[in-house]
Amino acid sequence: MKSFYEKYQNASEETKDALLNRAVNKMLDKQLQSEIEVGLSADQPISITKKEPFARRRWLRIVIAAAASIAVLIVAYINLSDTGDITVLTSKYLSEDLPTHPGVEKGAGEQATKIRNDAIKAFNDQNYTLSGNLFKQISKKGEEDNYYLALSSLYAGQYSEAIQVLQKNLQNPNSKYVQEMNWYLASAFILNDNKEQATQQLEQINPGNWNYDKAQKLLRKLSKQ
Prior knowledge:
The chain has helices at residues 4-10, 13-39, 54-83, 86-96, 114-124, 128-137, 143-155, 159-169, 178-191, 195-202, 212-223. It is an all-alpha fold and 225 residues long. The protein folds into three domains: 1-51; 52-83; 86-223, Tetratricopeptide repeat domain (Serine Threonine Protein Phosphatase 5, Tetratricopeptide repeat, Alpha Horseshoe). It starts with a helix and ends with a helix.
């Protein structure tokens, strides 16, 4: 009797597939039955009375393998998204929601000076270094002037200065910019590599506050670094 190898070598392509399928099918049937019998208790015997077609089992294994691969990719994506560079994500958040100055001082009736107008224009043109310098020149700065001075410093990359101004502004608990300043101060801490202070600041952003969901994502990242 010819060995399986000899039959396989001399067979046509179609016959090769049939031979291989039968051989693998037989091996799998024996292995499957053995594993099931070992896994079950002795008082619950099992008998396999009907063979499942090889093709169906093969496709089932492919589907299971594909599902497992997708699950691994999803877990990997979640892990990567939670452990990436937090400064990159913070900068991305800041660039997604660029602030603009409304053009008048919030809640105040004082007529804007030329310096203030120039500062506002520079800020809305995203010339943050210039707007920061101009806001500093305003002799009697209101709450809004100090707020946009802090944002000018933050977006100009002057994080230490932004932190200083924001912390001073937050000493007024009744400020109309409290929620915004909490977010921007936390962002400035992250970008200035003050991770512990950033965590404390982000924890002050409560559900319903501005950028709460983003703050939670940053907190998750900080907990893994």
